Every structure is written in structure tokens, then in C-alpha cells.
Automatic annotation (TrEMBL):
It is an enzyme of class 2 (transferase). The lineage of its organism: Bacteria, Bacillati, Bacillota, Clostridia, Eubacteriales. HAMAP family: RNA_methyltr_RlmN (MF_01849). This is Probable dual-specificity RNA methyltransferase RlmN. GO terms for cellular component: cytoplasm. Its cofactor is [4Fe-4S] cluster.
Length: 354
């Protein structure tokens, strides 16, 4: 019998399975808390579950933690991890710390949802390696749990406060597993990360943008826009050929009509697309949308040929948007000294193995 992935189980699933095995309900609750709240990485760490019950449970559950292959730390505190999965595939995720003057500091984990990516955006290191497979709910959640575990070895009070599904892969092409992971990360007996503190990023999978609004209107949405006409966007984001801008903008409007939540429109700026004409075109496309533009100077990635624009050009781009009544900000850059672009660390690792 195939064993069940423990880190992907809801509390209700654990209760049902434990009772079927002759264990009381409280044992399932304990098990869930050890796994999802305390982020333990082995059966031995579950101190209030006896060896006999541990043995019984281990016969039915597959409980594995991610293997940390590499950790890089930036001068700004950002940590980037390369993890190996049970089948030998590798993924990246990032921990970003933001200090706040009021309330608690923000600790954001950027998680991956696929091994590689099928979208193939022109500026992204992940797409250069192709697509391998979707991640399971357990593999998605494990990134947050294992980062929590490692950091708590240094800071026992550490808590992840925010999750962004912006790592390797297209989250809305792994829709069901991503939604399961969101529910687990939000659970009261788990890490208890607020729905409004989680954001799903997409390159424009139109049907699932609308479905997300219906299934979970509390979760934030970020749309990788990057260009204001189909010809340019086709080059940057091949997904646009399937779901062109007109369809995408209608889906975004429907999303905000249902959720009443503002969308973050991400725009990667290169030396070629950061002119005033491009900014005016972008303002025209976004007119009437409930949204905010996040400008992202592109990370230089070997193999893409794309270069960053000059700082003055970026500022002027933002000014043009603001003058047109578009809310805009420049992304606070994190980890630029540690292979910041998504997929770079994995490419480096795989290159070393060849």
C-alpha cells in the first residue's frame, strides 16, 4: 500500500486515518501540530507520541523533509535555499526579512510550485531548464516548514509571516496542490499564516485567475504583465499566445469585481522596454483596473541577453505612470549578491554536476 504524504494531510484527514488505525482523535491533533506548527523533521522529535504509535503511523505515512543542498546568505539578511526532493529533483526558495518600525517584522518565504517551468518567460532562469513536474502539496508546504525549522535553530521565536508563490514554476498550472498548501499554511493549529498575507503570482492563466477569485477571495493575486501589447508580451511571456492581453485584462476585472481586492501588476524593466512610450502604453492598458504596478529591474541572467535599465530611466518610467493616475512602486530588492534571479542557484548547481 502506498504511504500517504504526512506533510500534505489536513487535520481532518489525520483524524480519519488515525481513528481507522485504532488511535484516538487527540493523537491526530498532536501529530498535526508537530508537523505543521512545530515544523519537526523526524518522528523522534514528537516527544509526546510513544514509540509504538510512531511505528504504527510510520507504516502508513511517508514523512520526509527536504534535503538542504545549499544555503546562500545575502548582506541584507536574505537567505536562498536549494533543496533536493525525494526523487532527486531540485527546487529553490527564498527567505526575505523586512524590518518594520511598528508591529512585528515581516518574514516572507518565496516558494516554488513546480520543478522547472513550462511557461518559458524570456527573462527567467527557471524556464531555461525546461519543465520536469508539478510539486505536491507536501513538497510546497515543506519549503516553509523546513526553512522555519532551520531558522528556529538560531532564533526559537522565528515565525514566517508572509508567503509569496513566486518561486520556480507557474502556480496556477498546479492549482489544486497550491490551494491545498494555502489551507494548510493558514490552519489555526499550524503556522497560522493569514490568507491576506499570501500572494499567488501568475503569468496569466486566465481560467484559474477567475477560479481563484471564487475559491479563495482572501488570497492576494500578482500578475506578471511586463508588456502592454501582445507582440512584445508574446516574446516575453509565451503564455500570452494562449491568453492574450484582452482576455487577461477581462479576467483581472472579473477578479476584482468578485474579491474587491487590488491586483499587483508586475513589470520587469529591461534596457529595451523602460522607455516613456512603453510606460504610456502600460498606463492605457491598466486604465480602470483596481491595481498597483510593481516595477522590477530585471536580474541579469546568463542566456537571456537582457540588461537592466539605468536608474534615471526607471524613475522616469514610474513618473509617467503616476502622472496617468496609476499607483506604482519600485520593488525593494533583496539578495542581489546571491544569485537573486529565480532558478539561478539551481542552474549553477546542475552545471557543477555536469
Amino acid at each position: 500500500m502506498k504511504r500517504i504524504e504526512l506533510r500534505g494531510c489536513s487535520e481532518d484527514q489525520l483524524i480519519e486515518i488515525c481513528q481507522r488505525l485504532g488511535l484516538q482523535r487527540f493523537r491526530a491533533v498532536q501529530l498535526f501540530q508537530w508537523v505543521q506548527q512545530k515544523a519537526v523533521r523526524s518522528w523522534d522529535e514528537m516527544k509526546n507520541i510513544g514509540k509504538k504509535d510512531q511505528q504504527l503511523l510510520s507504516n502508513h505515512f511517508n514523512f520526509y523533509s527536504l534535503e538542504k543542498l545549499r544555503e546562500q546568505r545575502s548582506h541584507d539578511g536574505t537567505r536562498k535555499y536549494l533543496f533536493r526532493l525525494e526523487d532527486g529533483e531540485t527546487i529553490e526558495c527564498v527567505l526575505m526579512d523586512y524590518e518594520r518600525r511598528s508591529s512585528r517584522d515581516r518574514h516572507t518565504v518565496c516558494v516554488s510550485t513546480q520543478v522547472g517551468c513550462p511557461v518559458g518567460c524570456a527573462f527567467c532562469a527557471t524556464g531555461l531548464e525546461g519543465f520536469r513536474r508539478n510539486l505536491s502539496c507536501a513538497e510546497i508546504v515543506s519549503q516553509v516548514l523546513d526553512i522555519t525549522y532551520f531558522v528556529r535553530q538560531e532564533d526559537p521565536d522565528f515565525q514566517v509571516t508572509n508567503i509569496v508563490f513566486m518561486g520556480m514554476g507557474e502556480p496556477l498550472l498546479n492549482y489544486d496542490e497550491v490551494l491545498k498548501a494555502i489551507k494548510l499554511l493558514n490552519h489555526d493549529q499550524g503556522l497560522k499564516i493569514g490568507m491576506r498575507r499570501m500572494t499567488v503570482s501568475t503569468s496569466g492563466v486566465v481560467p484559474n485567475i477567475i477560479q481563484l477569485a471564487k475559491d479563495n477571495p482572501q488570497v492576494g493575486l500578482a500578475v506578471s504583465l511586463h508588456a502592454a501589447d501582445d507582440l512584445k508580451r508574446n516574446h516575453l511571456i509565451p503564455m500570452n499566445r494562449r491568453y492574450p492581453l484582452s482576455q487577461l485584462m477581462r479576467a483581472c476585472q472579473e477578479y476584482t469585481d468578485i474579491t474587491h481586492r487590488r491586483i499587483t501588476f508586475e513589470v520587469a524593466l529591461t534596457a529595451e522596454n523602460a522607455g516613456e512610450e512603453a510606460a504610456l502604453a502600460l498606463a492605457g492598458v491598466l486604465k480602470g483596473q483596481l491595481g498597483h504596478v510593481n516595477l522590477i529591474p530585471v536580474n541579469p541572467v546568463t542566456g537571456t541577453g537582457m540588461l537592466r535599465p539605468e536608474q534615471e530611466k526607471i524613475k522616469r518610467f514610474a513618473q509617467v505612470l503616476e502622472s496617468a493616475g496609476i499607483s506604482v512602486s519600485l520593488r525593494e530588492e533583496k539578495g542581489t549578491d546571491i544569485d537573486a534571479a529565480c532558478g539561478q542557484l539551481r542552474r549553477q548547481w546542475e552545471g557543477e554536476l555536469k
